[in-house]
Amino acid sequence: MEMHYYLGWFNNYFPENLAKSLQEDITDRKSIAMISSDPFSYEDDGSTERSWLNQAGIIFDEYYLINYRVQKEDAHKLIQNTSVIFLLGGDPLKQNHFLKEYELSGAIKESTAVVIGASAGAINMSAKWLCSPKLGFKVETSSVYDGIGLNDFSVLSHFDLENNFTLVQTELSPLSKEIDIYASNKDCAVRIKGDEIDILGNVYLITHSKIQKMKETL
Length: 218
What we know:
By secondary structure, the chain is α/β, with parallel strands linked by helices. It has 7 helices and 13 strands. The chain has helices spanning 16-25, 47-55, 72-81, 92-101, 105-110, 120-125, 165-176; strands at 3-7, 31-35, 62-66, 84-87, 114-118, 128-131, 143-146, 154-156, 181-184, 189-193, 196-200, 203-207, 210-213. The strands form 3 sheets. Strands 3-2-4-5-1-10-11 form a 7-stranded mixed sheet. The longest helix is centred in the C-terminal third of the chain and has 12 residues, at 165-176. The chain is globular and about 45 Å long.
């Protein structure tokens, strides 16, 4: 059964109900492979995301970081054999480029591991996403990027929705006519377990230009 977690960002640690859900879903804790969002940087080591898991009592026997220091072939082996894949937060554009260069999307989709993405990682787990300067991306023009496509929807993660509803609704309106968009701020999560969708925190669904708050179920 597929298990995907699209996370926002957590200034402290996972809320108790999210921690409990992850504890129940991550039964195999032999290894975790973390995919960098700034693969040229040695500082992007997943220490923050790892601290969230540690605080939740989710400890692995082995930890691996996938960036440009890891050969492409070795990265694929890690993805194939790991218990959990965690796409780290940070720069979604750099991570997206790295995923394409290393051809990791197919390997991740074929994996039986639990897949988690935080902020940038959650964005790149989705089918496609809008990279727009109005949404805080450091680009001059707007473009739609293909993500891994673990599920057939788009994600806008870790964005100040509450103060930008009109902007977000207007900017994402064209894409929302093609594909559903889940938009969230900090301390939020969307969990996909098989055919079920669970919501934690303030998550909004944008579809056909209309925005509605999702009922919290997690």
